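Request:
You are asked to prepare a plain-text protein record giving the amino acid sequence and the backbone structure tokens, at your earliest convenience.
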Amino acid sequence: MEASKYSDHELVKQFIDGEQSSFELLIKRHKDKVYTYIFLMVKNSQLAEDIFQETFIKVIKSLHEGRYQENGKFISWVVRIAHNLIIDHFRKEKQMKTLSCDDHEKELLNSTRFSEMTIEDSIIQDQITMDVRKLVDFLPEEQKEVIIMRHYLDLSFKEIADQTNVSINTALGRMRYALINLRKMVEDKKLSLTVK
């Protein structure tokens, strides 16, 4: 079965009708974006892997139980499941950031991209990233969705428009309002979003 011939909607329907290979194609199509989103949130490859697997187990269960409403937003729905599992994980750990930083620190220290950045800078950068992530959760659902799809999943505005069933102008408008709201929240909370 050639994945590119089928839309997400068709693959989901085929899977529900018993065609197991259709789900493998869906995973293959979306795994990089879903994993990247999870990893950006938890910054730990082992934890990201666990949540990634848990996400797709939950997706399979939800599809079999008929809890997926087709609206052309399969990837958004999967990311929302992943997002909820990430929140659940942090709640269980009883703090917002429980990471094993060993691997992360080695990557930072060995990366040429961060060679100019001091340890203090990288800690501040991590804090800024975490602060912004928290603020995104306070945005209205439609604005939050466009921020996640654009900045965490790296989708184009055309892809966002297609997946959310709106025009490109509407997607751009939601992004604009999301950024205005984020700026306002940053000012209200007097956050500093610069490393130096």
Observations:
- Residues 50 and 129 are 22 Å apart (CA to CA).
- The chain has two domains: 1-98, 101-196.
